[in-house]
Design brief:
heterodimer, A: 376 residues, Rossmann fold, 5-stranded parallel β-sheet, 4-stranded parallel β-sheet, B: 342 residues, alpha+beta, 60s Ribosomal Protein L30, Chain: A, Phosphoribosyl-aminoimidazole Synthetase, Chain A, domain 2, 13 strands, globular, HypD_2_sf (chain A), Hydrogenase maturation factor (chain A), iron (chain A), HypD_1 (chain A)
């Protein structure tokens, strides 16, 4: 059985830190600037601050917080559509909890709920299926968002809905996929990342081999990590060793749950159900292979068929959000951070979602004065 | 089940049905009192409770929990403990409570009796009387089964002075038991997480224990009932009110494995989970052991311990010293904590 305490043991942490600190120094000196490490996943961002790993490692490693929070990148259009569906008579909009406070162009789902729309928080897409079974006179719409992590569970739910012959459940899909997002990020000229800490949960689905283009095409090493302090430090040590030795590989430091091929059954379900397209995401821009719809076999479950026509405007997002999402600016270097933009009054998605980098900086009071990276 | 008695709108109309309900459910459970006639107000003999320098403490709270019954308690135990504890942490000896009920049409009277019986039982054990009350019935759907409001009256003895703005550098931060159990128990009892674990609400009246603490260590500076918002919210308020920095020791925080597991699964922090039988006490460090040993004499204080210290004056801060020698700031969440997506 997994012994959680072993992955949090202070002696194990200290052993790793003692190896990392001098190595980070050497790699940073060779570059004549701090090493830029992007942790892609919002869960990792929080784990780093929760344990104070940034304090343990010191200024030779700069953490660049990646776009790996599906709530943060959700376009305002998606929220507007969800609200419109929730406001239809007889509808129940079922959603993950942390989407409630994300601002659309005309408010949030939480505000829509307060004004009478039927919005229910569920913990699993299967809960939405249960809602539909229990209330045949209602039409349930599940707001299906997330990276490749949540997609398989939702694909299986859609398949189950068809098998059970349910006609009162539909899905509003806004799925962003990790590998195309990373590729989109690395194609930008301004990006300044020496290597990646690869996300843990997404990799269970994708498998370690899926990251090969990051190393081969873009020359960036990546080490997949778990979420405990020892996991993250071990992954960071492996990444720094690669940079120090001039290697560029995909390595797996989370092998207790991640394999090379990924979860084949999950991938098959996703391929059967989801239809890929290009979609515009907050802060990231257009990403191919996004999922906004369902394949012909499952089209009856696509909530877009019931969607009223909405005004297709552009997102009013502060320009700084995109810079933070791409690692060109730290949250506390944004002029709005902690002033106009706070968790109570978020101006952008990174402050709304609890997994967002700005929310993490605010929550953990991170405000060390670090200069942004100016390398091209 | 066919003959089950249900609350109807007639029970709230003030006629025979109302009076029968009051006699059969409330008076039988909360009585007997010296004054057997049901007057419009309870009249309390104050002379026996008041010495020179005594003060009256008064508090009120409404209880709307769902589900009504959960492991470790029900809305009735909450309605008594919550109000009694609010009085006790102000240094008051609770005397009596009022209880106002808003009932939903269609509520089985058997369920109401169960709630009222646990109120009566909890009040007896907390040594307070429920001396007056009110009942209203509203149409189905207008409330969720039963809402209860209790108001409490207590006496603060001369010389007792506990307030949120009196914390000073060097004070020890103590709690009487594991944190977050009530919040975790309610979350599981709602059943929509599909999880099960052996977590019970810590719901308990703390006035006997707090009375003993104040008798043994009158120098206690701050006492707070860490209910909604949890230990984190209470300490954050104390840091603000007293303008001090409070440092908690991560290794010392008493959190049951089950509660910790639920929190980690959902991305929530037990520091912000509700408690219903947990007092946070700030006392000069030299007297911390004395307070802890009084706590341990009571069933609610078996796992009492020091969780931190007030480290300096002059800036309101709350943080945790982690097991790794790092510091983690604690920020009060804006609203309810929302479970994360993945």
């Amino acid at each position: 059985m997994f012994n959680r305490q072993a992955f949090r043991a202070p002696p194990a942490v200290k052993t790793l830190v003692d190896k990392i600190v001098p190595l980070a120094r050497r790699v940073a000196e060779a570059r004549q600037r701090p090493v830029q490490v992007m942790e892609v996943c919002g869960g990792h961002t929080h784990a780093i601050f929760h344990s104070g790993i940034d304090q343990l490692i010191g200024p030779d490693v700069e953490w660049v917080h990646g776009p790996g929070c599906p709530v943060c990148v959700l376009p305002a259009q998606a929220v507007d559509e969800a609200i419109a569906l929730a406001q239809q008579p007889g509808a129940i909009l079922a959603t993950f909890g942390d989407v409630l406070r994300v601002p659309g162009r005309h408010g949030t789902l939480a505000q829509a709920s307060a004004q009478g729309a039927n919005v229910q928080v569920v913990y699993s897409p299967m809960d939405a299926l249960t809602l539909a079974q229990q209330q045949p006179d209602k039409r349930v719409v599940f707001f299906a968002i997330g990276f490749d992590t949540t997609m398989p569970g939702i694909a299986f739910t859609i398949q189950a809905a068809r098998q059970q012959g349910l006609t009162n459940i539909q899905f509003l899909c806004y799925h962003i996929r990790l590998i195309p997002t990373l590729i989109r990020l690395l194609e930008q000229d301004s990006v300044c990342i020496d290597g990646f800490i690869g996300p843990g949960h997404v990799s269970i689905v994708l498998g370690a081999d899926a990251y090969q283009p990051i190393a081969r095409r873009f020359g960036r090493p990546l080490v997949i990590s778990g979420f405990e302090p020892v996991d993250l430090l071990n992954a960071l040590l492996m990444l720094l060793q690669q940079l120090d030795e001039g290697r560029c590989e995909i390595e797996n430091a989370y092998a207790r749950v991640v394999n090379n091929a990924g979860n084949l059954a999950a991938k098959a379900a996703m391929a059967a159900v989801f239809d890929s397209t290009v979609c515009h995401w907050r802060g990231v821009g257009e990403v191919p292979e996004s999922v906004n719809g369902l394949t012909p076999d499952y089209r009856a479950f696509d909530a877009r068929s019931s969607l009223p026509r909405l005004h297709q405007g552009t997102d009013q997002e502060p320009a700084y959000c995109a810079e933070v999402l791409t690692g060109n600016r730290k949250p506390h270097q944004c002029p709005h951070f902690g002033h106009a933009c706070q968790p109570e009054t978020p101006m952008g998605p990174l402050m709304v979602s609890s997994e967002g980098a700005c929310a993490a900086y605010h929550k953990y009071n991170v405000g060390k004065c670090k200069e942004p990276c100016h390398e091209g | 089940m066919r003959d089950e008695q249900l609350i109807t709108l007639a029970h709230g109309a003030g006629g025979k049905a109302s009076s029968a309900l009051i006699q059969s459910v409330f008076v039988s459970a909360f009585g007997p009192h010296q004054d057997k006639s049901l007057q419009d107000a309870a009249v309390i003999d104050v002379q026996q409770h008041f010495g020179a320098g005594s003060r009256i403490a008064m508090t009120t709270d409404s209880y709307v929990v769902s589900p009504l019954f959960f492991p470790g308690g029900d809305i009735g135990t909450l309605a008594v403990c919550g109000t009694v504890n609010d009085l006790a942490v102000c240094g008051a000896r609770p005397l009596c409570l009022s209880a106002a009920f808003i009932l939903e049409e269609g509520l089985p009277i058997r369920e109401l009796q169960r709630v009222v019986a646990s109120m009566a039982d909890t009040a007896r054990r907390a040594n307070v009387s429920i001396v007056t009350g009110d009942t209203k019935v509203v149409a189905k759907g207008q409330v969720d089964k039963v809402f209860i409001t209790t108001t409490g009256l207590g006496v603060v003895p001369p010389g007792v002075q506990v307030r949120s703005d009196q914390a000073e550098a060097g004070d020890a931060v103590l709690v009487n038991g594991p944190i977050g159990d009530h919040g975790a128990a309610i979350m599981l009892a709602r059943g929509d997480l599909g999880l099960s674990a052996d977590v019970r609400s810590d719901c308990a009246a703390l006035n006997p224990m707090i009375g003993d603490i104040l008798s043994a260590v009158p120098a206690c500076r701050v006492m707070r009932d860490a209910t909604r918002g949890g230990v984190g919210a209470v300490l954050s308020e104390i840091a603000q009110a007293s303008n001090v920095a409070i440092a908690l020791d991560e290794n010392a925080l008493p959190v049951r494995l089950e509660t910790q597991g639920i929190c980690e699964l959902l991305g929530l922090d037990p520091l912000f989970f509700a408690n219903e039988g947990l007092v946070v006490v700030l006392v000069p460090q030299a007297q911390a052991e004395a307070v802890l040993s009084v706590m341990k004499n009571h069933p609610e204080g078996q796992s009492a311990r020091q969780i931190g210290q007030v480290v300096e004056q002059g800036q309101p801060l709350l943080y945790i010293n982690t097991s790794f020698g790092t510091k983690r700031m604690i920020e009060l969440p804006y609203g309810i904590q929302l479970p994360r997506i993945c």
